[in-house]
TrEMBL record:
This is TIGR03643 family protein. It comes from Planktosalinus lacus. It holds the Pfam family DUF2805.
Length: 92
C-alpha cells in the first residue's frame, strides 16, 4: 500500500501531517499517498499515544481536508510565503 519512501520523505510526510494548514491533498500531490496511506504511515511510525493525539486533532479538521475548506486555493502554500516565479523569489 505504501510505496518505498526514504527516511527524509517519511520525516517530511509526518511533518506535513502534523501541520494544521497542510491538507492531505498536498501530501498526495507531493508524495502520491492518499489520506488512508498517510494514516497508516503515521500509525506505523509513531508511538501509539502520539498517533491517538494526532488522529484526534485531524479528524474532521477543515484545514486538513481541501473539500471542507471555505477557500479553495489551487496551490498549497501559506499566505505568508513569498511568491516564486521563474525560480526567482519575487520582491515585494
Amino acid at each position: 500500500m505504501i510505496k518505498e519512501l526514504s527516511l527524509l520523505d517519511i520525516d517530511r510526510i509526518i511533518e506535513m501531517a502534523w501541520e494544521d494548514r497542510t491538507p492531505f491533498e498536498a501530501i498526495e500531490f507531493q508524495f502520491g499517498l492518499k489520506e488512508q496511506a498517510v494514516i497508516s504511515l503515521m500509525r506505523n511510525e509513531m508511538k501509539p499515544s502520539s498517533f491517538k493525539m494526532w488522529r484526534s486533532r485531524v479528524h474532521g479538521r477543515k484545514t486538513k481536508h481541501a473539500l471542507l475548506r471555505t477557500t479553495k486555493n489551487a496551490r498549497f502554500k501559506c499566505s505568508r510565503q513569498k511568491a516564486i516565479s521563474g525560480n526567482k523569489i519575487s520582491k515585494r
